[in-house]
Amino acid sequence: MTLEVGVLGYRFMGTAHANALARLPMFFPDAPAVERSVLVGRDESALETAADRLGFESVATDWADVVDDVDVFYNLGPNHVHADPSIGALEAGTPVFCEKPLAPTLEDATEMADAAREAGVPNGCAFNYRFVPAIQYAKRLLEAGEIGEIHHVRGRYLQDWLVDPEAPWSWRNDAELAGSGALGDLGAHTVDLLRFLVGSDDLAGDIERVSGHLQTFVDERPTADGHRPVTVDDAYSAQLAFENGAMGTVEASRFATGHKNDHTIEIHGSNGSLRFSLERLNELEVLGDRGYETVLVTDADDPYIDHWWPPGHVIGWEHTFVHENYEFLSAVADGGTFTPSFDDGLAVQHMLTAIEESDDRGEWITLD
Questions:
Q1: pLDDT, averaged across the chain
Q2: What is the model's pTM?
């Protein structure tokens, strides 16, 4: 059986996933057969060009014309178009894979997760960093108790692409379109990774309370015909209190001069510590007898690595999308489940909303 895939969106994430779909049969021969069937967007001229470049057979300018006819629907558009097309596809019984954050608001995210549960088909939220082999290796160490009782959890995601006040306005600077700024764009990844790595009863458990701070550094940005206001945060930070007494800090910034894509996770426990940076994604730093030791996670027995190159030959950021697509499409073909699901996306959205509420109210927020 060949799965016909419809994709909404053809820019950054559309390209990343189209590349992953093209690579699957080369490196994951047991992956389901996939046909890049239809590409969806508003600008028909740009759409035709993108479809030719990304290997799609046809184009459509209305997602409603597509979701009934494909076997899988990928929603890779801006945040404000996540809800309606995803819900429409789910109501048609079509499995849906949606970019993160799941939605710009908690209300939309709740409706999407409800629709996914009611549809009973595979659904996924695009937290691709779960599929970095070094993160999978860290998860294995944590579950085996190698780190001991978790005391401290730290996560940061630093970029600098908005440091220049003359950097142009985009939809990512608008609360109506994006929901939030660095918080949703970058912080969603950090929150999901922490949930994945330590969010179980035998590790750090659930997050009980949060205290957040959001900051906007540039209030307006240039457009082709003037300026438009910036209505989202440029940076955020938050403190986390876990039910078992562990402490956490998370932050993200698009103003961290000198940092291009530095997503760092640190976990400190009673028996050891772990440290990971996306800018060195093949490595995991593990506390040894003489300080941190760097483990190159590229051996054949490391997760996914047996599909790629000989030991020691590193993989890159784009390969995380191949792993993610392999797992999601396999779940679709087998009628199984996929994580991170829409429910995982909703859980992250609850955290993002709590951080925003904490900043608004100037107090700790207790999570339900």
A1: 95
A2: 0.96
